[in-house]
Design goal:
With 222 residues, this protein is mainly alpha-helical. Helices cover 60% and strands 2% of the residues. The chain has eight helices and two strands, in the order H-H-H-E-E-H-H-H-H-H. The chain has a two-stranded antiparallel ribbon with strand order 1-2. Strand 1 and strand 2 form a beta hairpin. The protein is globular and about 65 Å long. The relative contact order is 0.09. The mean pLDDT is 91.
């Protein structure tokens, strides 16, 4: 049953929302205000720049995210915000950025992209747990424990690196794959190493971990 107080709050909120939105806008940095006004004015390019321009822009932004990570460790920052700037390196996403950079490096004959991918790989090898797993969350977040999903996504990068340079990335790839294989339950679900940054329950997206195992198997021929 909805209380009288809840009914009043529900009735008042639509009336107060414009004022709250205005206050939120005033708290934004100058650059954020300018970007917001430009978006509202419809200042985006009217013509589609095409896929090549979009790919170049994405690679440029990801490279910048690697350079600007607040932990300056070779990983790629999780995010950028007008309010807080760049974030710390994020092992999970760094892992699956690696295959993109290696593929684009080959297609474009770009040694710079390849070097960036190797820097990411070296960093991932350095932060791997002894049991083969990788932490959840950003660098610096706690608790620092091995997480199934993150390990599976990083395995995609280790497999791509191992396909070109069997060592030292092959050993790290096999450790990660063994960790995941050993922790898989009989019914096909991973439960023993959940992320500490979400509700602990069975998650359908854990099946994406299988892709990392598949890539490791493809590289090793197993």
């Amino acid at each position: 049953m909805v209380s009288m107080t809840q009914q009043i709050k529900a009735a008042v909120k639509p009336l107060a929302q414009p004022a709250l939105d205005w206050l939120d806008f005033q708290a934004l940095p100058t650059a954020a205000k300018a970007a917001s006004k430009a978006d509202r004015a419809g200042s985006l390019a009217a013509a589609d720049p095409g896929p090549e321009a979009a790919i170049k822009a994405a690679l440029s932004w990801l490279s910048l995210a690697q350079d600007q990570s607040t932990t300056a460790d070779g990983g790629v920052a999780r995010h950028w915000s007008y309010l807080t700037g760049w974030g710390a390196s994020y092992p999970e996403t760094t892992g699956y950025i690696v295959p993109t950079f290696l593929e684009q490096a080959a297609l474009r004959q770009d040694a710079g992209l390849e070097a960036r991918a190797r820097t990411m790989l070296d960093w991932l090898v350095d932060i791997q747990f002894e049991d083969g797993g990788f932490q959840g969350g950003m660098i610096g977040q706690t608790p620092k424990v091995p997480v199934t999903f993150n390990t599976g996504q990083i395995l995609l990068g280790l497999a791509a690196g191992s396909a070109q340079w069997p060592e030292p990335y092959g050993a790290a790839m096999r450790k990660a794959a063994d960790f995941l294989s050993a922790s898989l339950d009989d019914d096909g679900c991973w439960r023993s190493h959940p992320t500490p940054f979400a509700v602990h329950d069975d998650k359908a997206y854990e099946t994406h971990v299988a892709w990392g195992l598949y890539e490791a198997a493809r590289v090793t021929g197993r």
